[in-house]
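During the second half of the funding period, the structural biology subgroup turned its attention to how the target accommodates small molecules. The most pressing case was pyridoxal-5'-phosphate, which had performed well in the primary screen but for which no bound structure existed. We therefore specified the complex as follows and requested a full 3D prediction, including the ligand pose.
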Amino acid sequence: MRFVVNLINEYDPGPFPDEFDGEVIQLASNENPFPPSENVIRAIKDGLLKINRYPYPYYSELKSLLSTYTGVDEGCIAVSNGASDLIRLVTDIILEPLDRVYIPMPSYTMYLMFSMLRDAHVETEVFEEYRIDGCYSRGKLAFLCSPNNPTGNTLEKKTIQEFLENFEYVVVDEAYVEFQGNSAVDLLNHYSNLIVLRSFSKFFGLAGMRVGYAVAEEKIAEAIEKIRNPFSISHLGYLSAVEALRSLDYYRKVAEMIVSEREKMKKGLEKNFHVYPSSANFLLVRHGDPELVKKLQERKVLVRDVTGLEGLRGYHFRVSVGLPSENSKFLEVVEEL
Ligand SMILES: Cc1ncc(COP(=O)(O)O)c(C=O)c1O
């Protein structure tokens, strides 16, 4: 086995309802709690009898709809089974051993794992609350996340531009972008070294389907397409992503509800805790009780314990916005504790 595998910390997926008896309130994975659109449900039902066949490997309808959705040419889009797989694919097409990779922290941990797997020279730097005011480093690849997981804040365009001018390639992970709408995609008109990653797991509520995409200049998109698993999106994942893009009005309404619930939760939590301002579908909370996450779990409320993540000082949990009834229950339990 390769030595680097021993050095990599296993990804911590947090608690899952399957690990508990009875019903739990799942607010640990930044999922969208609302059901899929009716069109998506119908498409999945209609597609069931075709799961004996391979999916069409070019995913052209999805790419065509994504082209309209993002405003870039189809040739600038690469698809795969989730933004997380695209992070791996980006490191695969770009990184040679010992290339310098820069990761501002606290942020999503998969950037580190996949860069390490390529034997890259990784430099992490902590920014208080992920407030990055400029680029003070140089190298092959920088990983930015906006809105950032777990802090929830967004990066200013001029900061992203500074990175684009100092790094050979810059990834901007926009898994949560639709909850605030401020995308870096238009920077592609000026920067050919930008790679924007997107997910169907959050705004489109298809976390269980595993669909994501990258937007980048044609050469980069082509390289990703060339090396990805030819059938990386399942047939049902493909059909549901296509129909989700045709149900934008529905998902926009859902996102509005999520944002309004998020602000209610924030107000409730601020009575007792420091809550980070968020542009996503989750909140990061600093607290003082080492047992709090466990106590919430005992009361069947699952949140993600992010204490110990590089760049976070003190105890922290991240809570996703759930259904209104789940959020009220969560606030009730927190208040009780
Ligand atoms: C910042 C960020 N990027 C990527 C992902 C992975 O998304 P996907 O489900 O599309 O693999 C997540 C998942 O939580 C995330 O928080």
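Two results from this model are relevant to the next phase. The mean pLDDT is 97. Residues 30, 82-84, 108, 145, 149, 173, 175, 199, 201, 207, 212 surround pyridoxal-5'-phosphate (CB under 6 Å).
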